[in-house]
Amino acid sequence: MIEIKIGSNEKEQRVDRFLMKLMVNDSRNNIFKYLRKKTISVNGKKVNENYFLQENDVIKIFLPEDVFNKLTEVKKSEIIDKYHLEIVFENEDILIVNKPIGLLTHPDQNEFKKTLSSYVNVYLSDYASRTFKPASIQRLDKNTSGLIIFAKNYDTLKKMNELMRERKIRKYYKTVVEGSMVGKREVKGYIVKDERTNRSIIFDKPVEGSKSVHTIFNVLQSNAQYTLLEVELLTGRSHQIRASLEAIGHPIVGDGKYGGKSVKGVERYLLHAYKVEFNGQEYSKDSEEIQEFIKKEF
Fold first, then answer.
1. Domain ranges of the chain
2. Contacts of 233 by beta carbon, 8 Å cutoff, 6+ apart
């Protein structure tokens, strides 16, 4: 018999989902059967699969230990090597890292291991369990660099997600766009993403399937050819900044997908999430690629 006590990182999730994350090599049907037949109990009682676990609940699993070990084994081939992370800030609750260009935030259908989340989970292995892994609060596109916040425990994840929903985490980017701009610009509209082309379009009025967008652009530096902008993202839609800048006629330098011209020495579009603010604190890190371009062209 195996006994598991629920801690703060495992609480408030359905027992079936907890068990599926724990017993990764078993099937959903078997887990449901274990619950029905009380092969798995909670606090000595039979529970339904939709029971929400509470801190200090005790799960008992009446399976031979060797069987349980096989059902929960993580294959060595799934474990990645350690990766150098550029850490901007870390305490007991959060980790803020600077994601480089060309790295996915989360796994997708083509890449599972070599992602920022995978590397962070290796780095924070002491904070992870079989049923909880440190999780990012936001994400960035593969070729957008910048700051990403990870929660190291479940309570912090809930609090940070709440701050995000209430728009109490302020997110700022820097980008270089084509053309000369002055002052402050604000783009409000409605965005639709074409999943087939992986491209978003901004509309003035709502259309079918659209979502509202709100972006503020402040000019930091400008000449006749280029403008360095600080961007505040008030909504978080896919490709929101890139599509908004195309819509006002100032595409990001190097962003061919959204109307940008090819520029010698610029391999990817110049967009970087350089600052986040929350709970009265500010964390920032500039982009070396943008800094080099500014020195060269301004």
1. 2-73, 77-165, 170-297
2. 171, 172, 173, 215, 240, 241
Residue of 92, 87, 143 whose CA lies nearest to 120: 87
The CATH architecture of the domain made up of 77-165 is 2-Layer Sandwich (3.30)
Q: From CA 205, how far away is CA 43, in angstroms rounded? A: 55
d(CA 148, CA 15) in angstroms, rounded, equals 30
Assigned CATH topology for domain 2-73: 3.10.290
208-251 pLDDT tens trace: 999 999 999 999 999 999 999 999 999 999 999 999 999 999 99
Alpha carbon distances (Å) from 197 to 203, 210, 250, 257, 258:
17, 16, 21, 10, 12
- Give yes or no for a contact between 211 and 191, defined as CB atoms under 8 angstroms apart: yes
Task: Give how far the C-alpha of residue 84 lies from the chain's centroid of Cα atoms, to the nearest Å.
Answer: 18
Contact assessment for residue 296 and residue 169, using Cβ atoms and an 8 Å cutoff: no
The angle formed by the CA atoms of residues 182, 171 and 262, to the nearest 5 degrees, is 55
pLDDT for 79 beyond 90: no
Instruction: Summarize pLDDT for 105-146 with one digit per residue, the tens.
Output: 988 777 767 899 989 988 888 887 777 889 999 999 999 999
CATH number 3.40.190.10 given to 170-297: no
Per-residue pLDDT tens digits for 251-298: 999 999 999 998 988 999 999 999 999 999 999 999 999 999 999 999
